[in-house]
Task: inverse folding
């Protein structure tokens, strides 16, 4: 019986020794010396952009080179171009212009109502015939005033001297005045066209020109 206990004790002691040895292996195992790692480089912090005060949009001053010139309107001289032809129109013309005198005289003989005159100077550099068929003036209140050849008005005034008891001399004078006022400007030629409108022109917003008939229209711009 004592032998058995002694054998068990030896066995237990041996097992315990093995355990202790194994534990020592774990405990006493050389650990890898930690590698000193440099801390990750820190990205340089972005320098905060200095805050700028709010900027107001630029205001064009009268002397600014980039300022957009105001569009001219109102009575004055208007310029147009068409297929190479260029011209200016006085909208309206000065009633005291000597080129209008013969029309005023004839109108008064016919005892007709006064009209508004427009004078166009045209340099026909195009390949078309320029007739100054019509000019349409748009007023500030949206009214459209149509001006046509002065010869149309002379023909109407001439009728006052027609018929039995009429004045044949004055009637024939009207024929000559109308014929001389017809405007047909061939390519390369320069000329003056007189136009008339029934209504007075006190304000001008836009001006449209029909240089060569009823279908082709261009806009004239005020230049002075």
Result:
């Amino acid at each position: 019986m004592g032998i058995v206990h002694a054998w068990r004790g030896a066995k237990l002691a041996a097992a315990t020794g093995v355990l202790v040895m194994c534990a020592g292996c774990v405990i006493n195992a050389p650990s890898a010396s930690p590698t000193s790692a440099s801390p990750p480089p820190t990205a340089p912090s972005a320098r905060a952009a200095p805050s700028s005060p709010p900027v107001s949009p630029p205001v064009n001053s009268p002397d600014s080179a980039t300022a957009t010139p105001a569009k001219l309107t109102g009575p004055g001289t208007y310029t147009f171009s068409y297929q190479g032809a260029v011209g200016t129109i006085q909208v309206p013309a000065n009633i005291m212009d000597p080129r209008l005198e013969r029309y005023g005289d004839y109108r008064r003989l016919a005892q007709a109502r006064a009209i508004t005159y427009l004078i166009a100077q045209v340099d026909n550099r195009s390949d078309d015939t320029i007739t100054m068929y019509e000019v349409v003036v748009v007023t500030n209140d949206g009214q459209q005033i149509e001006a046509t050849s002065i010869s149309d008005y002379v023909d109407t005034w001439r009728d006052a001297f027609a018929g039995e008891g009429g004045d044949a001399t004055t009637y024939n004078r009207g024929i000559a005045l109308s014929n001389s006022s017809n405007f047909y400007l061939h390519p390369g030629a320069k000329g003056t066209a007189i136009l008339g409108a029934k209504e007075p022109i006190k304000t001008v917003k836009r001006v449209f020109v029909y240089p060569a008939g009823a279908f082709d229209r261009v806009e004239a711009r005020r230049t002075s």
Notes: Helices lie at 2-28, 101-109, 150-158, 168-181. The first helix runs from residue 2 to 28. The beta strands are 76-82, 85-91, 116-123, 134-138, 144-149, 190-197, 206-210, 218-222. Residues 76-222 form a domain with the Immunoglobulin-like fold (CATH 2.60.40).
